[in-house]
Amino acid sequence: MEFTTLGRSDLRVSKICLGTMTFGEQVDEAGSQALLDHAVARGINFIDTAEMYPVPARAATFAQTEAIIGRWLAARPGLRSRLVLATKVAGPSRGYDWIRQGSPDLSAADIVQACEDSLRRLQTDVIDLYQIHWPARHVPMFGGVYFEPAKDQAVTPMLAQLEALDRLVRAGKLRQVGLSNETAYGVSEFVHLAERHGLARIVSVQNPYSLVNRVLENGLDEALYRHQVGLLAYSPLGFGVLTGKYDALRLDDPARPGRLSLFESMKKQRWARPETLAAAKRYNALARAHDLTPTQLALAWCGSRWQTASTIIGVTTRAQLDENIEAFAASLAPELVAEINRIRWELRDPAQ
């Protein structure tokens, strides 16, 4: 397993991170803990979760993933010190009225309380990386394409949020802080505020990055490079469309169910757009033409990009976990990368 240092921090993380959004929904507690054990045995030391997991978000399952991980850690004394544990505080309500009563904001007090709750569920004294899951201000995200000034509204300033995070760092409850689903402006502003006011500096941004969504290359990657902030690439398999399992199936076909087939809400997401499915089929066919599986092409590509610090993988079985880990070892010839870029030039980023 390869390791890297995250941003300007002292966090030494595996280049593969185990994402846990399926734990407590598609995977039961016993299965989740077995996957965590196997990931650690394979050399992964980086575990990512969130207070709103599992996904799709539901009031009945809110925060169950953190609780599962907490019980797993409690049953394995001595393991916690070997891991880098990351979690996230949910941003303003996106229809989730069971999270902070559906607040349209994320205040400093919200951040502090959410951190305390996550520490309790995770059964740990410190969270290694604490991330704001999505911005409080209006930005195009989760399938949004355009910034719309008319949708802007007064929310807790970034400085107040950063001050809350900094207090938690100084109290020893957090080691490092990061962002998620952010823009180049957001990254730069958080960095500048930290430097101007002597506050905790963000070390990472968790954003989508895959063959069907390379939008971060349109300026965000420069901000990450200039500010020395590490990218945690999520959905490198595009919610499964880059594994090939949807190539010959309708999303309502129960023959090989995945998240896009199982959950009605996900059939409306960017990953299920006709354009995304069509682009995925092109990349999947390209992989096979070069004697690779679609999974190998997608993960090897994401993991080898200079933009990527660590790639987050999400699985439901041990076989998927092994397949994903081994896929990163695939070698992509320069002519294959050139073909990938030609498809991207033609189809752009359908899962933006």
From TrEMBL:
InterPro entries given in the database record: AKR_Detox_Biosynth, NAD(P)_OxRdtase_dom_sf, NADP_OxRdtase_dom
SUPFAM superfamilies listed in its UniProt record: NAD(P)-linked oxidoreductase
Top-level taxon in the UniProt lineage: Bacteria
Pfam families: Aldo_ket_red
Signal peptide interval: none
Coiled-coil ranges (or none): none
Residue ranges occupied by any NADP-dependent oxidoreductase domain in the UniProt entry: 15-343
Single annotated GO MF: oxidoreductase activity
Entry keywords, A to Z: Oxidoreductase
Protein name, per record: Aldo/keto reductase
Phylogenetic classification of the source organism: Bacteria, Pseudomonadati, Pseudomonadota, Betaproteobacteria, Burkholderiales
